[in-house]
Amino acid sequence: MYSVSMKEKVVVVTGAAQGIGRAIALKMAEAGCRGLSVNDLRMNDAAQSLKKEAEALGAEFLFTEGDASDEKTMRKLIESTAEKWGRLDVMVNNAGIAKSNDLLNTTEADWDLVIRVNMRSTFLGMKYAAEYMKDHGGGNIINMGSIAGITGGNTSPDYGASKAGIIALTKFGAKTLCKYGIRVNALAPGTIETEMITRNFAGLDPESLHKRLSAIPMARMGTPEEVANVALFFASDMSSFITGESLMITGGRVS
Ligand SMILES: NC(=O)c1ccc[n+]([C@@H]2O[C@H](COP(=O)([O-])OP(=O)(O)OC[C@H]3O[C@@H](n4cnc5c(N)ncnc54)[C@H](O)[C@@H]3O)[C@@H](O)[C@H]2O)c1
């Protein structure tokens, strides 16, 4: 059996305590990465158990607490990673939030928050990681988009807009960072079974919920691990001629 190896690599993941970020972090540890540097809002029980699992898989672990859309947190995340391991191979900009609101009920505060957390964190992660990678042999940046960034989404206007922005940032980064040996790609998942989806679906009436689920040709939600598999592909040399791509992981849903 062929397996993709991340041996010796150092990987950073934002928003990694739970959900898709956690699955990506553990996938990198399973693939043998040396260092796993993760961020989340706080070192809670989920983050503690991630540390345990990652270390049991043989990865060295570093945690940076704080808001990924805050400049100080992101500087610290990259600087402490570089200081601990002297390298940074893969940056996964995963942290994100979603709200469930139609256009008329979306407040200015909702809009600002979603755009800030989703897009600004991605911009900062790309900027600081690239700053380090360009002088240290290149690397891979993986951004968390969404099918909502391609189709406009169904959840709220700010969410789809933020993810469309991330897809544009991915293309811009790919074109301009190639010269430093840095590839930039995005994941564009559909409906993936995490707390974010549980929260969003909790507000739907049965008919709307049925409509959402029946729009998935494979007739099920995806798992965080199915997204993590694609992250591993982008992080490895298996995807060496791919940059600027946003890959849909949607069970066949295209709209
Ligand atoms: N679940 C889905 O169906 C789905 C689909 C497409 C894209 N996504 C994207 O995947 C990413 C992860 O989503 P998830 O479903 O795992 O969500 P989740 O809510 O289960 O987990 C998100 C994690 O990010 C952390 N986080 C939130 N805001 C943060 C911030 N400002 N700074 C640092 N950490 C922060 C949370 O504490 C949590 O640990 C998000 O960017 C989301 O938009 C999810």
Briefly summarize what is shown:
By secondary structure, the protein is α/β, with parallel strands linked by helices.
Shape: globular
Helix/strand order: EHEHEHEHEHHEHHHE
CATH homolog superfamily: NAD(P)-binding Rossmann-like Domain
The radius of gyration computed from the alpha-carbon positions, rounded to a whole number of angstroms, is 17 Å
Overall number of strands: 7
How does the helix and strand content classify structurally?
Answer: alpha/beta
Helix content: 40-55%
Distance between the termini: 35 Å
Strand content: 5-15%
**Sequence of strands across the biggest β-sheet:** 3-2-1-4-5-6-7
The mean pLDDT is 96
Give the CATH architecture. Answer: 3-Layer(aba) Sandwich
Can you tell me the CATH class?
Alpha Beta
The main β sheet shows up as: 7 strands, parallel
Count of runs of 4 or more consecutive helical residues: 9
Low-confidence residue ranges: none
Named once each, the bound ligands are: nicotinamide-adenine-dinucleotide
Describe this structure in words.
This protein is an alpha/beta fold and 255 residues long. It has a single domain, classed as NAD(P)-binding Rossmann-like Domain (Rossmann fold, 3-Layer(aba) Sandwich), CATH 3.40.50.720. 47% of the residues lie in helices and 15% in strands. It has nine helices and seven strands, in the order βαβαβαβαβααβαααβ. The protein has helices spanning 19-30, 45-56, 71-85, 108-133, 148-151, 157-177, 195-202, 206-214, 224-235; strands at 10-13, 35-40, 60-65, 90-93, 139-144, 182-189, 246-249. It has a seven-stranded parallel sheet with strand order 3-2-1-4-5-6-7, sandwiched between helices. Helix 1 links the parallel strand 1 and strand 2. Helix 3 packs parallel to helix 4 (108-133). The longest helix is centred in the middle third of the chain and has 26 residues, at 108-133. The termini are far apart. Nicotinamide-adenine-dinucleotide binds at residues 14-15, 17-21, 39-41, 67-69, 94-98, 117, 144, 146, 189, 191-192, 194-197. Nicotinamide-adenine-dinucleotide is lined by residues 14-15, 17-21, 39-41, 67-69, 94-98, 117, 144, 146, 189, 191-192, 194-197.
